[in-house]
Amino acid sequence: MILTEEQIQSLAEQTLARIDAPDDAALLLEGSIAEGFGNSRSDIDFLLIADQEADMPTMPTIFFIDGRRVEIRTRSVGQITKHLIEVAGHRGRVTRMDEHLLNRCQRFLRGHPVRRPDLITKVRENLSYDMFATVMTKWWAEYARQSVRHAVMLESLGQHDQAAVWARAGLQQAAKSWAARHGETYLEPKWLSLQLDRLAENPLVARYWQTEGTADIIRLVAALGVTGCADTPDRLVVERPREVTTWQIGDRVHLVRDRRDVFVLGDTAARTWRRVVWGRPLAGLGPEGDLIATFVRYGLIRVSWRGAAITPRLPLAAPAGSVTPAPAMTLPLLSIAGAKPAHPRSIDLLPLPAHRFAAAAMALVWGNVMVENAVEDLRGALDREQWRVAALATARAVNGGLRALLCAFGVSPLPSDPELIGGLDMLPAPQPRIAELARQLSRPGSRGEELPEFIAAVRAASGGDAFPSSFDSADGWQRTLDIGYDWLRLGAYLDQQLPLDEAQDLLSSGGAQPHTSSAKEAG
Fold first, then answer.
1. Strand 302-305 to strand 236-239: parallel, antiparallel, or no bridges (unpaired)?
2. Which CATH class is domain 5-127?
């Protein structure tokens, strides 16, 4: 220990003089100083143990005494006993144990008694240090196993730099497991080198510092006692995460993750995705290893080791789980053909939650149908010189076009019809010509002379150029139904309100009109 007993007692007395501590409380010096790892900049960590069952506040109090940063935490005997008993009764479920629980137990078991050593010894009887060391050996070994398996997967995908990083992480975890087997249980990896220094007589320590290269690291991990992670990529199998679904809109592939996130795939990424066959070996997915690795990183593909999911994690560091990239900035966000990927190899996260994406897409299609229907009504009204009917049809066309435009940029829910023109201010890029045309067409008595220019401008800005003429032919109407059906399926999956009651019939019929005869249609 880098502090003398006199220095510890002096710091303890000055610390206790600054707090309201029970007279019968125990005091423990814990952490790196107690372990003998600390240096002149290390905190002095005290744990005050109240001889009671009721919980004590867990937030530390900080003092600066004699040029040192002193941190004192409080726990009751009841709290510490509960933690120790939880670890003692693990019943084989070691890897499910919370790292903070284990850290608190380790610090208590290895701390240096300053006051009331009798009370500290009594509480320690709830968990022997040998049992705790066995728990930590298994705990670190499982994390090492997962990291190395992940490294084997990345190596098989040609991601050599990433594989090397994870292999090194697995080696560090394996060393922590090996050290725990030899009585060195301190959790934080920052003092691993000093832990190994105390075990330096073993030749494995020298190998730890000398080993480089993923293959050699994996062999050393096995030598350190971690099994089940040999360099055997044939054990890697592709599995479908239950929370990921695929939605093809036209030729564009979208993936919905956890019913919350939407990803759109570029053409190359989509081709790679279509080659994925669940339950098959990872090696059979083709040459696009970087794309497969990205699918795995985002949680869109799960890779197992002969049925056991690979879940790499660095304890006391970044949390486990799928990565969520920064949202794509491509504008507009969506069109009748789906979202637009940035490039062929992109796997873009959309900056809209899945339910709003689906709602906006359905409203975009319905807005375009409104335009087509209003244009059809306008033509008939103009033929019969029904000027007031023409004005109402024009207003409907304007509202439908503005709805489609706002939805293409992710505005959902939409503003009410009287506020649609003003709602153009919500768009990231101004649309002055569209706004001007909308105002002209909305004036009383308008006969829609500017409507073709307005519709062309709206569809150019919203990616709706390819929307069919829904009311001119049976083919145009069927193409309209096909577009709507794709989006309605996604909206229904995400429990979104459908744009009109009839849409439910379209879903029920699988995209076909409910009363047609396929034989008559074919004839």
1. antiparallel
2. alpha beta
H/E run at residue 303: strand 302-305
Pairing of strands 308-309, 334-335: unpaired
Mean pLDDT, the chain cut into blocks of 10 residues (523 residues total) = 89 93 93 88 93 90 92 95 94 84 96 96 97 96 95 94 95 97 94 94 96 94 95 92 93 95 96 92 85 95 91 78 89 90 95 94 90 90 89 93 94 92 90 94 84 94 80 78 85 83 58 54 41
Q: How far from chain centre, in Å, is Cα 140?
A: 24
Tell me if 484 sits within 8 A of 512, measured CB to CB: no
Are 187 and 108 spatial neighbours (Cβ–Cβ below 8 Å)?
no
pLDDT attached to residue 503: 55
Between CA 4 and CA 11 the distance in angstroms is 11
> 349: which residues sit within 8 A by CB, 6+ positions away?
261, 262, 263, 298, 324, 325, 326, 327, 328
For residues 175 and 208, the answer to whether their CB atoms sit within 8 Å is yes
Task: Mark out the alpha helices in 5-157 (DSSP H runs).
Answer: 5-16, 32-35, 77-88, 99-110, 117-124, 129-156
Is residue 30 within 8 Å of 58, Cβ to Cβ? no
Which of 44, 43, 33 has the alpha carbon at shortest distance from 1?
33
Q: How far apart are CA 456 and CA 243, in angstroms?
A: 39
Provide the token pair at 357.
């994406």
Q: Which residue has the tokens 């900056």?
A: 351
This prediction's pTM:
0.85
Would you mind telling me the total number of residues written for the chain in this entry?
523
Q: Where are the domains of the chain?
A: 5-127, 133-231, 236-349, 354-522
